Design the sequence.
């Protein structure tokens, strides 16, 4: 009996088939798409930069050359914006946008031209578009060939090659350093301060128009009527003058309150401690103040501290239901700390558009912080931090140039 050792029919054909391809993850497919799109994007960017620089160099001897270079740098910024979007979509790399070109808004064309020509962001984006061409050709070739020849190792190849892409994007298309990010934060803070100042000016104008100004207009009319009655009805005129005297007192009080809201005289004359002690007399919650400062800070810091604590005391009066509050003020290193506590019901927060939200934004705009700890049921502790700045030294008046007068006699 002969036993056949041949494999069953069709077994050789089955062995000849290549192993089944494992499905690739969605992230791997996005990385492959990024590698394959590197070539057309790199070619377009390199051609743009080459034509731009060549044209700008040829026209450099004319008045058109510098504007061409500036316009090209603006275009390089747009190329960088496109590349950041592509990296965000395909490589899951979220790079923050760099700060815009900073120049004087009312200086005309020349300040814009100078600021654009020395824009480091635009030049970095131009460098990115230049070095991308050889890398784009290499990555496209490797990814394209691996799709048909080296499929099993393609995921690892794609991850390794796109890691270099991620480094290039973060290194050349991200904000250059902490200083640039800090400038962006300060510009945002400046906008907050400008809005707050505009709101304060509108409030002062409204208070003057609706308060002291209206009262003084009515006072002038009453005095005019009293003058007409003075000759034939002196008793009525005297009564009207007496009423006008009362109106004058009210108008003066309104003007004092308004001036106190702008900058209280006691703060200028005596400093933060006495000014806050006087401020607590208008708070409906009994408040104590403890100040431990080596000397007075710069007037601007002192004013910000005063109005910060004024806002916090108003919140305590309106919302806390507290029976006692305390303020501590001290200096540590280069910071001025303002610490308020109250035994109210708590729940203070910066959400939902409360006054603490605006206070936090205003403090951030001057490199300050606001720390809030206010659990439901209380107590509430709020600490405001401000940068400490010493006051400027008083200018030396110099020697007197006037002559001394001899006493008479």
Sequence:
């Amino acid at each position: 009996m002969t036993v056949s050792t041949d494999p069953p029919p069709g077994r050789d054909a089955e062995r000849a088939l290549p192993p089944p391809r494992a499905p690739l993850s969605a992230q791997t497919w996005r990385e492959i798409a990024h590698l394959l799109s590197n070539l057309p994007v790199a070619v377009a960017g390199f051609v743009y930069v080459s034509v731009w620089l060549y044209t700008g160099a040829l026209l450099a001897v004319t008045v058109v050359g510098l504007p061409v270079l500036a316009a090209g740098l603006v275009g390089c910024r747009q190329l960088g914006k496109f590349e950041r979007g592509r990296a965000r979509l395909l490589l899951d790399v979220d790079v923050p946008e760099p700060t815009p070109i900073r120049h004087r808004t009312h200086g005309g064309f020349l300040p814009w031209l100078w600021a654009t020509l020395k824009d480091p962001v635009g030049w970095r984006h131009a460098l990115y578009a230049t070095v991308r061409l050889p890398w784009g050709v290499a990555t496209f070739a490797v990814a394209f060939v691996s799709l048909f020849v080296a499929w099993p190792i393609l995921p690892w190849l794609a991850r390794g090659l796109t890691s270099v892409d991620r480094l290039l994007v973060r290194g050349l298309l991200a904000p250059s350093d902490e200083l640039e990010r800090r400038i962006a934060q300060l510009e945002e803070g400046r906008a907050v301060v400008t809005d707050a100042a505009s709101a304060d000016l509108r409030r002062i104008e409204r208070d003057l128009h609706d308060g002291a100004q209206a009262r003084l207009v009515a006072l002038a009319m009453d005095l005019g009527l009293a003058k007409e009655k003075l000759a034939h009805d002196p008793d009525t005129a005297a009564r009207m003058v007496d009423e006008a005297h009362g109106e004058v007192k009210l108008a003066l009080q309104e003007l004092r309150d308004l001036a106190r809201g702008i900058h209280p005289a006691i703060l200028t004359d005596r400093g933060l401690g006495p000014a806050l002690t006087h401020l607590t007399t208008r708070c409906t919650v009994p408040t104590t103040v403890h100040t431990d400062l080596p000397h007075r800070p710069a007037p601007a810091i002192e004013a910000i501290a005063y109005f910060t604590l004024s806002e916090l005391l108003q919140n305590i009066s309106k919302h806390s239901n507290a029976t006692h509050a305390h303020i501590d003020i001290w200096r540590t290193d280069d910071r001025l700390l303002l610490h308020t506590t109250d035994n109210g019901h708590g729940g203070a927060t910066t959400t939902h558009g409360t006054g603490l939200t605006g206070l936090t934004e205003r403090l951030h705009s001057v490199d300050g912080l606001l720390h809030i700890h206010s659990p439901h049921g209380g107590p509430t502790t709020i600490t405001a931090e401000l940068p400490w700045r010493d006051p400027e030294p008083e200018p030396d008046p110099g020697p007197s140039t006037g002559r001394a007068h001899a006493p008479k006699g």
About this structure: The chain is about 60% helix and 10% strand. The longest helix spans residues 178-229.
